[in-house]
């Protein structure tokens, strides 16, 4: 990257002809473009895993709450502990794995150079159509827990929510059989009935179904 501001600019010998117009390098488009690249660089390896627990942790004096990512699979709104959610991105190309035509495994995806298994989470949770069309609001979500890393496609992402523990209630007996083994609690958020997934339960189910 050019460092003209250190050589001929404000922090150098001040021979740059643009200084007459901009007075200082911080007002120059070249300096602004260079600064913008700081926000587009890939995060260092392990940064997301290291910082997510810190960001998700309850602040001193705060109401006890559970930080979760809320997303939709088909008609079901679900939530998963934020600490298990590594990244959210536009849906990448899903490439099928030869001789692995299992309904719960869609294929593999490339996430910043890392090849991950992409699972049909809707099928694993007992419903949905893994072959359905990807809508405009769909996003890929990368999750991580106890050394396992997976990707899946959600039909919509609602965002991060700090759910007060007092607002969590037991899952009703009417919950679908497919979801029942994975749901730890339910909560109403902005008029949505959201099932809160147990992180251990979900990843244990992924290991059993995908292997």
Oligomeric state of this protein: single chain
Structural class: alpha+beta
User: How many distinct helices?
Assistant: 6
In CATH terms, what is the fold-level topology of the largest domain? OB fold (Dihydrolipoamide Acetyltransferase, E2P)
Radius of gyration over C-alpha positions, nearest whole angstrom: 23 Å
Instruction: Count the beta strands.
Output: 10
Rounded mean pLDDT score: 85
Helix-strand topology string? HHHHEEEEEHEEEEEH
Structure characterization notes:
The structure is a single chain. Helices cover 20% and strands 33% of the residues. By secondary structure, it is an alpha+beta fold. Strands 8-1-2-10-9 form a five-stranded mixed β-sheet. A five-stranded mixed β-sheet has the order 3-6-7-5-4. Strand 1 (65-73) and strand 2 form a beta hairpin.
SSE order and pairing:
Elements: H1 4-7, H2 19-22, H3 29-36, H4 47-56, E1 65-73, E2 76-81, E3 85-89, E4 105-111, E5 114-119, H5 121-124, E6 139-145, E7 148-154, E8 156-164, E9 183-189, E10 192-197, H6 199-210
Parallel strand pairs: 2-10, 5-7
Antiparallel strand pairs: 1-2, 1-8, 3-6, 4-5, 6-7, 9-10
List key phrases describing it:
211 residues, alpha+beta, five-stranded mixed β-sheet, 6 helices, elongated
Task: Tell me briefly what this model is.
The chain has helices spanning 4-7, 19-22, 29-36, 47-56, 121-124, 199-210; strands at 65-73, 76-81, 85-89, 105-111, 114-119, 139-145, 148-154, 156-164, 183-189, 192-197. With 211 residues, it is an alpha+beta fold.
